[in-house]
Amino acid sequence: MNIEEQYRRLAPKLTNWLVASGSSYHVACDLVQNTFLKIWQMRDDIREDNSEFTGLVFTIARNLRKNLARDDSRIAFVDEIKDEDAGSIDPADSPSDAAYLRSRLNDALAKLPPILRDAFTLFQIAEMPVKEVARQTGVTENVVKVRVFRAKAKLKEILADLRVTF
After folding, report:
1. CATH annotation of 94-162
2. pLDDT at 152 > cutoff 90
């Protein structure tokens, strides 16, 4: 197995999935690097099957993210945003439309129930096939399809004010 090729193929999808799941871009990049470091350490025990390899990579990344979240929960942060300013992002004050939209999308994804968010991000953002999402989440393919559909509907509802009507 050529881990370098697998890295090139999966790293962007894994990074996008981690960011959509709530990690910052820099943390997501670190998690991707640590994931592939673990893969490198396990390289002699890994089979050539691409679908199983993809699942293994995402499982390792998910576990690393959980470990990081557990470790971070023990750290106290000082909030830099005043309570009266929280949640008041104005697109005009944003450095760019893309940053504003990214912020809104991240907020909308955070509002989804975890089972819908996992199915949606694995399917849409990590670009996993429904069969692999089903295997990762431990449900049937039909349940995955329903969860993705419901997640899209909920996101459409949450982000309705961004829709342009003609």
Report:
1. 1.10.10.10
2. yes
